[in-house]
Amino acid sequence: MKSLLLKLFHSKAQLSVHEHIAIKACLQAVPKNVHTAFDKQLSEYNLIQREVSDKVLNFYKCSLFGKLLEPSVLLPIQTGEVLLSSFTLVKTSGAEVLVKIYCVNRRLFSVEFSEALNKLSASENLKLDKVVYQPELTRA
DSSP letters of 53-67? Predict the structure, then answer.
C-alpha cells in the first residue's frame, strides 16, 4: 500500500508528445553551459502545471506532502526572472510556433507556447527553425 501511495504522489510529470519535442528543442536553443543543469532539473520536476490556455507549462519539484523543493542543481545564470531563450518551431504545415523559456532564481520555471501543443494531431511534426533570442548568460 505504501509503495502505491508513493507512486501516486511521486509520479513523473507527463508532457504531451509535442510538448516533449519542444522541450528537447529547448536544449538546442539554450547555451551549452546550461545543458546539464537544464536536463537535471527537468528530470527532477514531478509537477507540471498547465495554465488555462494550455499554452504555458510551469515546472515544480514537490515533496510527498506538497512542499516546494529546490532542484539539486541550479542553472549557471543570474538570479531573478530571466528569459533564457526564445525560438521558433515549424509545424509540418509551415506554420510557426513561438516558444519562450523562463527561469526564476536559477531554475527552469516555465515554457510558453504561442499555441497549445498538447492539442496538435499525432501526425504533426515540429522542428527547430531559428533561435530568436538568446541572452549572454552570466552567473551573478
Answer: TS-EEEEEEE-TTS-
